[in-house]
Amino acid sequence: MGVTKEQVESSLKAKLNPSHLEVVDTSGGCGASFVVEIVSEQFEGKRLLERHRMVNAALEEEMKQIHALSIKKTVTPEQWKQQQESNQSNAAA
Amino acid sequence: MLTYSFFFLSHHRYRTSMATLNLSSLQSLSFHRLFSSFPQNTPTLSFNFQPKPSVNPRPISLKPYVSEKPRARVVALAVNSLGETEAVAVSPENGESAGELPSGAGVYAVYDANGEVQFIGLSRNIAASVAAHWKSVPELCGSIKAGIVDEPDRESLTQAWKSWMEECIKVSGKVPPGNESGNATWVRQPPKRKADLRLTPGRHVQLTVPLENLIDTLVKENKVVAFIKGPRSAPLCGFSQRVIAILENQGVDYESINVLDEDYNYGLRETLKKYSNWPTFPQIFVDGELVGGCDILTSMYEKGELASLFKK
Predict the structure, then answer these.
(1) Average pLDDT of the segment spanning A31-52
(2) pLDDT confidence of A90, banded at 50, 70, 90?
(3) Which one, of B212, B191, B224, lies nearest residue B274 by Cα?
(4) Which residues form the Glutaredoxin domain (chain B) (predicted)?
């Protein structure tokens, strides 16, 4: 059986203590494909590759059943704040 | 081993289906069988396209499209109409480096210097396709209109392309010359010169060194190496395809290895996953170090960080 969105969320929450987390099930119901957006202090000072590794490691068990994991964003709370602000100013412009 | 390779085949189909919603897995399987033979930059639908104004008098271009199949889903037209889109002039600068042209998926129209529409195309990476056109037929590339499709599944891309074609035919009364049947000016890319590398002499030959050492030598002796699913001339997975498109677009000299080649790269997938400590493909190495997969390369590409990475 596939993995649920809730399982992915709870593993990521437990291991990366995110301040913002968005998991989207893009598999159409079979639970094999997810898109992840995650904001965590633990990414501070880490390169993109290391951040993705951390997400992959946090989902080690789930990955056995997930076919496609697209990690859309791995940012620190600081970067997240900046992005949100620039998005807002773009929308306002 | 048979079941194993099947797993990976189905894997790539799932991976390419990331943008589709509400499709049962069965439907998406057959859907992607079709889609994987749908080459980039090649609107296969340009042939046999017949406008039928008498049969279908209502203007389609601005109306949401509603599928009549039992599992219906509504696809709102994702792009502006051709008339509403502003043209961007093609110059040596943005023709060759992406410039201000979008690198996303969508529909685009090419106009010559006199403002005559020459071709309407469909692409997974508009900037890369335009750059390729600029290289092959600069005299026909005056300006470009681009319409990005946000959820680029096959249906919405085709829909966007159709709506632009219909609008163009309505306005000008003819099919763009480049879309006429038999015209190969736009849709055939010159064959890529390089072949994929093979890691071993063949499955039947006993290796004298561990596969891991071969990988190690390969990535350290070549500046840029991409491990992809399928051959580089026709990647079999959307993510690999995107990676190749980015590398081609950057004009980097790179080596590619097809991890699905069971004859010459037997056992590579499992060994490479351990070697790089990275669970998925594609994988891109620069100077012997893993840069990452498709997500990372895409994000670096969008931030403009790749040029310096490849130059170092």
Answers:
(1) 90
(2) confident
(3) B212
(4) 224-291
Helices within B104-228 (DSSP H only): 126-136, 154-172, 211-221
- In order of B12, B62, B112, B174, the CA distances from B170 in angstroms are 39, 14, 19, 8
User: Which domain covers residue A50, as residue numbers?
Assistant: 5-92
Unique residue bearing structure tokens 């680029």: B152
Chain B residues in contact with A35 (beta carbon < 8 A): 18
Model pTM score: 0.53
Separation of alpha carbons B260 and B231, rounded Å: 9
Which amino acid type is present at position B2?
L
Rounded Cα distance between A4 and A26, Å, is: 11
Please give the single-letter amino acid code of residue B57: P
Number of domains in chain A: 1
Task: Return the pLDDT at B202.
Answer: 87
A68–B300 CB contact, under 8 Å:
no
For tokens 């064959």, what's the residue? B191
| Structure confidence by residue, pLDDT tens digits, B197-206 | 998 888 888 8
d(CA A15, CA B199): 37
- CB-based contact B169:B82 (threshold 8 Å): no
ipTM for the complex shown? 0.80
With a cut of 80, say whether residue B33 has pLDDT above it: no
Cβ contacts (< 8 Å) between B295 and chain A: which residues? 52, 70-72
Domain with residue A78: its CATH number is 3.30.300.90
**Nearest partner of B16 among B33, B1, B41, judged by Cα:** B33
- How far off is chain A from B300, nearest CA to CA, in Å? 9
Please, are residues A12 and A21 in contact by the beta-carbon 8 Å criterion?
yes
CA gap B261, B243 in Å, rounded:
18
Burial class (CB in 10 A: 0-12, 13-18, 19+), A10: exposed
Q: Is B108:B130 a contact under the CB 8 Å cutoff?
A: yes
DSSP state, residue B72: -
